[in-house]
Structure formats: structure tokens, C-alpha cells
Amino acid sequence: MSLKNLLRLAFLELARYRNISLFLVLNLALGIVGFFLLQIFQQSLLQQSAEKAQVILGGDLSISARRAFGEQERQAWESQIQFEKSSHFYSMFSMLRTPTDSKLTSVGVFDDNYPLYGQFKLSDGPFASDRARVWVDPEIQEMLDLKIGDLVEIGESSFAYSGVIVEDPSRLFRGTGFAPRVLIHKNFLIDAGLLKPGSTFTEYWSYKTAPTYDVVSAKSNLEKLIVDPVVRIENTKDSAQDSNRVLKYFTDYLGLVALVALGLCFLCGSYLLQWTFLNKKKSIAIYKTLGLSDEKIVGIYLLQNFILSLLACFLGYLLVQGVLPILQRVITEEFNLPINLVFSLKALIVTCLIAVLGPMLMVVPQIIQIVDLRPLMLFQNVETRVKKSWAYFFWLVSSVLVFWGLSVWQSNSFKVGSLFSIALVGLIIFFQVINRVILYFLEKMSSRFGWLTRYSVRGLTRKPASAGLVFTTMSLATLVLSLLPHVKSSIINEIRPDVSSQIPSLFLFDIQPEQVQGLQAISQELLKQDLELSPLVRSRILKVNEENYERAVQTGEIQTREADDEARFRNRGINLTYRDHLQASEDLIKGKFQTDFSEENPESLPQISLEKRYAGRVGIDIGDIVTFDVQGVELKAIVSSLRQVRWTSFQPNFFILFPKGVLEEAPQIFLTSISSEQRSVVKEFQRRVATNYKNVSIIDVTSTVENSLKYIEQMSIGLQFMAWLAVLVGLFVFVVLLNTQIKERLQEMNLLQIMGSTNAQVLKVVLTQFVLLMTTSIVFGVILGLVMAWIVITVSFDLTTVYDIQYLLLLGAILIPVCALALYIGLKPLKKLNPMDLIRQI
């Protein structure tokens, strides 16, 4: 048979079952809309990051560290680079002060060559170095009501306010950082006295190279030359991949929620394909009797699936084009993200590939049945079931592996993708088992009720596969929808200032030793309390168990989020502290904590405590001997314990904790925090400290937390959108199943009317079945959402679980009428019941 005839048969079959074909197209289109939008968002983000990579990085190559570089060190690496121009830049925190107020800022210190790429858009002319000037982010100008020419103080110098940074091309996004940016020229850095011993700053050297210069090879050579893992070496490719890490993590999890909706679509599609096959089996037997080969019948099926997939892609494309302008407006106005959503051919290709290959994978059970079907089935009325052969189980395992691959790809994490896949498959199995258990008990209990109820329950137990699909899809969708608000509620409860009295009001750092006594005096006068100061000692790890602690090299290959995190933690500077006690925000989970160290035994080593997750990321465990370079002095210590730290306490916490008696003589600065419910007292304390100790940086924790809450709210909106999409798919599955089940039972319902049942009784039978099914699935989804929320919040975030009961009530208020509408639509075929149809068939 020619391809033309195969296509004609395929179209005839689709036209014959046009309602089911329409359901399949709508089902798949709904599933791919969210996935398609997410791909467009990700591709737009990557494209803009890549286009601005040189500007964001500050050059073609960048070398930076949270310490000062020596002249010889710089000359050594510059001898290995062929560059046209270089730029020197510092970034540090400092208070910007006016006569009436002060604000923590991130100070950028630039030279005459800055920026090497791109141009800053300023409100009042270009950068200038003729006198001490400062340019600020708009929020600083608004908060302090600055006018051109106003004098402000940074460190120990005065600067003239010269305008607002209207557009900063080096920052693709403004995130939830502690402080807005201000810019000053390098000529005035020394006078400002911002670089004191132990001060927190980052030094950057950026280089502009020729377009043909191989920056990847140059970076590789520099990594061999600069062995200190604290020094960060980046090229433009690294910059594009690394920009806006938080947003990329957010899109990772959005992708997983989108996969839930897509997975529900494939479950529904599999059911529809199987239901359609059962209706077509005699037609297939006729084809075989007439001599049509299995290969050509399978070809017809595959052609049908391909046509439906293309139609779904086209419909999804139209829906996305309609939604895209709305989404762009939401991202710009609500999320305040300057992302220009651009329709991406790559996003379309990726989505269409999944939309085409997914249904091809779904049709495999029907192909197995087609091959096993015999023409004798034409004369028999026997239900065809999927043969549980090795081919079927191979298909099942392959489907799970494909979904696992998609999960890993979307989450950029083997760990997260694997856990997500295992959890989802486990939940599907769990819901199927629970559904069978519920149906079993319903059937046992139905004898206590009237015949209509018994008949309704029997209708469910006779169709366990379709009942299980409704139960699974709606339970999963409800679980996803009810899980996220509990996580958000728990995080907000932990960090909201007016809820948790443990959250400090101010966080102070860069305190010099000679300033401690004066700060204590101010605290006693205003707060009536002593400050609990935490020392900070700069260091780096030289060896672990006598093996050199080398840099984690980032290759050009795809990196998982775990590998990325491990490299970041391994290559960062190490801040040490010492105490003889654990804070309220710390818990000892393994080993023994040493409070004091004495050198009575010359061979003994100080026993240090590491934060649990940090230890895992850098590959250090209890019993390991770590060699530190503490500002030129080599120091060995043995890991004796692991701690769990509650970072959301906003207290001065550290990854590595020494006992007393080791680091007291090392160069150090101090950190502290204060808590007070009297806002006026806190404001006066901040003013006094900023005036008398100009190098001390102060974070207003209350304001920082409030800003963070805004971003948490915004991100939860995005996740909730995807979750509601999953619910919409679940409701669509429900309507489809309701429609197919009613069509399948029309003869049975007609028979009931012939036997004397009224139309209201027939309606009550079907209504009871599906109300029961929907109610149990939603209830179990909500209950399991509560359980999963507790697991996620306790295990992943180590927080106290706070359930959002108000949201659950709102969810119920929304789902009940929506489900009622779905029932109304699905029960429409019952209005066409006509007993004469059954008599005509007889």
C-alpha cells in the first residue's frame, strides 16, 4: 500500500473518531503550553546573558578574589595574557552618610578604563575623576532625597552627589542583594580609608583581548599558574552561564512543575489511545483479514499520532503567542525583571520534539496489541488487554528513564532530577494502590446502602483503570497546588521580622579590634546590653590529609547544579571564627565539640567543627586533618564535629569554628548583631555607629528581610501558575474520562431506563461515581500535600512547618465550583439518552 493510501486511511480514522482526536490534541496542547513558555523564558535569559557576557564580566577575562593582589602576583599572570587594555575595580560594603541618615551601599571603585565594554547610562553626564564624585542607584537617591552637588560621606571622605545610575549594563538584574550600588573613582579610595586590615572587599582585574584571542585556553593556562583556589578566573562563557544564579534555580524548579503537567497529559493520552484502540480492534481485525500487514497498520497508527502531535504543536504555538504579551507584562511590571521574552526557534524545536516523541512512546502498548491481535477477534467479543510481555515491560522502563532524563535536564541536577522522578513514580504507584484499597472498602460498605449507591460503586470497581487514572491525576495536581503555599508560609514565618523575635534588627561587620570598646559603650548607653562579638579571621585551605587542596576547575562542558555549588564552595575564601560554645542557631549533629585548646600535648591538634552541608560539598569529614594558611602562618587542625546551622537566624554564623586558644593572636575583625523592638533606638544606634566608626558596615536586617519577602512572593506566583496549569490538565483529564466512560455506558444507561429507572436516577448513578472519585482524590491530594510539605520543609530547609490553612480554604472554594462545572460539561451526553437506540441495535 502506498504512502498516499496510508495517509488516507489515517485521516479517515481520525475523522471517524474526531471527538477523541480533538481531546488528544487539546490534552497535549495544554501540557506543552507551560513547557513551551518555560523554554522561551530560559532561552531568552540565556540569550541576553550571552549577549551581555563581556559587559557583565567587565572584559574578556576577569581575575578576582576576596583579598588584595600583590604587584608581583599580577605581573606573573599578565605575562601569560595577550591583552589590549585592562581595568582595575574594587567592590566592598560601606555606609553612605548624609547629615540626617545613613544607608549601607555596595561601593564600586573604578579606574579610567572602566568599563571596558558597554556604557553606563547616567542621569547627569559621564564618569569623571576631576574631583570626589559619587553616582548612586535610584533607590539611594529616593531614600535620601539627594540633589546634584549634595555632599555625602563614604568612609572618611566626602563626595559630591553627581547623578543616578539609570542603566548599569554590568548587572543584567538587580536581585535581593544587601545593598544598592554606588560608584566612586579609584583616585579617592585611599583618602576614604575603605581598605583597612581585614576589611571585606573583592578586587577585580578585567582584560580586553583581541577578538581572535582564545580566552578558553588562556583561562586554562592561568588556572595552572594561579594555584590559590580563592582566586576566581572567568571568561565570557563562564559569565553567561553564571549570571543570575537564583533566577536559574527558580527556572529549574519551574521546569519540574511543568513536567508534572506534561506527565499528566501523557497519562491521559495513554488512556485515550487505549480506549480508542478497544473501539477500533474489530476494524484492525478486518484490516488483517483483508491482508494488510502489521507493519502498515502500525504505520497508520504512527501517522495518526504524528498528525495529532503536529496539530497540538500548532495549537500550543497559537496559545503561547496569545499568552506571551501578558506574560511579558507580568515579568516586567510584577517581577520587575528586564527580560525581553523573544520567541525562540530552539524553544519551538525542543517543545515539538517532546510533543512528537512523547505520543510516539505512548502508542507502544497499542502497537504490541496490534501485533498480537488475531483476525479471529472479529467474531469474538473479548476485551483486549495489554499483554504483559517483555516488550511491554521494556517500554515501561524506557518511559520512566526518558522522564528521568527530562527531569535531570530541566533541573540541571542529577540529584534533584532523580529524587523528583522517584518521588513522582512512587506517588503514582501509591495513588494507584490507595485507589484500589478505597474501591475495595467502598464495595464492602456499599451493601449497607440502597441499590443506586451499590450500582454506582460497582460501576467504579468494574473500571479500576479509568477510576485510578482520575484519582491519580487529580490527586497529583492537588498535591502540587497545595504543597507550595505551605513551603512559602514556613519560610516567611521563619524570616518575617514581626513574627520571629530571634531575627536581629541590625547586622554589623568590618569592626576593627580597637573599635570594640567604643561600640560596647554605645550599646550599653542606647540598648542597655553588651554586644556579643564574633571574630572573623581570613584564611585559605592549603591541604586536606596532607593532599594539596586544589581549585575545582570549571570545564566548558555542561555542569550540574551540584558540581557548580561544589566548585563555588571549594574556590571561595575561608572565614574562620572561634568560640567556646555553640549559639542557639547551631546544633551539634555528629562528633564532639572542643571548647578550649591547650598545648599540653605538643602532638595534639586543635579540634574544629564544620557546618554539615559545607563539609559535604568540599569533601571533608570527621577525622580529616586540614591545613590552613592564616595570613602567612600555617596551621593544622582536625575535624572533630559537624554542626547544623540555621542560617535564617541572621546571626553571625560560620562554616568553620575553632575552639578558644588558637586564633586569638591572628589578625581579625569582628561581627555582631543587635535586636531591639524600639525602632527609634535602633535608628539612633545606627546613626551613632555610622558617624563615629566610618569603616563599620551595617545591614538593616528588617529592610533586607522585607525585600526578600517580595521576591519570595513573586517566585511563588510563578510556581503557582505552573501548579494551576497542572490542575487545569487534571480537570481536562477528568472531563475526558467522564465523557468516554459515559459514552461507553450509554447502552447500559439506556437499559436501566428500559428496566424502569428514571432519568434522574441514571444521572444520580453517574454523579455519585464521579463526585465520590473527585472528592477522595482531592482530599488525598491535600493530605499528602501536608505530609510532603512537612518532609520538604523539615529535611530540605530545616525549618518549622507552618501550614497555610487560609490558602487551603481558598483552594477548596475554587476547586469545588470548578469541579462542578467539569461535571456539568461531562454529564451532557446523558441528556441524549434514548432507550430506542438500544432497541434498534438489538
From TrEMBL:
It comes from Pseudobdellovibrio exovorus JSS. The lineage of its organism: Bacteria, Pseudomonadati, Bdellovibrionota, Bdellovibrionia, Bdellovibrionales. Keywords: Cell membrane, Membrane, Transmembrane, Transmembrane helix. It is a multi-pass membrane protein. This is ABC-type transport system, permease component. InterPro entries: ABC3_permease_C (IPR003838), Membrane_comp_ABC_pdt (IPR038766). It comes from the Bacteria. It is found in: Cell membrane. The chain crosses the membrane at residues 20-41, 253-273, 306-327, 347-368, 389-407, 419-442, 463-484, 721-742, 762-793, 805-827.
